Amino acid sequence: MTNTQLAEYAGLTAIVAGFLGYRMASLTNPYRADRIIRVVAVLQYAVPVALATAVLRTLGLQRLYVPALLTLLVYVVTAVRDSQDPIKENYSLLQELAILGMAALTVTIWGLLAR
């Protein structure tokens, strides 16, 4: 995959993640005055997913590893974004994120070893 194709791929996944973030924000905040929340949600989903797509794709993992890890990333962004308590004080969320991070790291290493 060339650099141009990688940039296009990351851009397309960012667009899809941005639409997902916009839709999820519009479901939780249906009022017209909350458009800024929707725009921020687009950025909160699109930027990490685009960066993760570029990094994971350059690793050359097997075919289904990248979508699975991106789905995990969207879940993590949703959990952090929708947390009612500050993240540093929400110990159950931090434990869940730590376990998910270890699982993602394990799967990534497993995928690299399977190459």
If you had to describe this structure to a student in words, what would you say it looks like?
The protein contains four helices and no strands. The protein has one domain (3-114). Helix 1 runs antiparallel to helix 2 (35-59), helix 2 (35-59) runs antiparallel to helix 3 and helix 3 (65-81) runs antiparallel to helix 4. The protein is mainly alpha-helical. It starts with a helix and ends with a helix.
Q: Can I get a quick summary?
A:
The chain has one domain. The chain contains four helices and no strands.
Q: Average pLDDT, to the nearest integer?
A: 87
How far apart, in Å, are the first and last alpha carbons? 16 Å
Return the structural class: mainly alpha
The major beta sheet can be summarized as: none
Beta-strand percentage? under 5%
Number of strands: 0
Helix content: over 70%
Count of DSSP H/I helices: 4
- Order of secondary-structure elements: HHHH
Quick one: overall form? flat
Number of domains: 1
Q: Report the uncertain regions.
A: none
Instruction: Tell me the radius of gyration.
Output: 16 Å
Key features of this structure:
mainly alpha, 80% helix
Q: Topology of this protein?
A:
Blueprint: H1 3-28, H2 35-59, H3 65-81, H4 91-114
Helix pairs in contact: 1-2, 2-3, 3-4
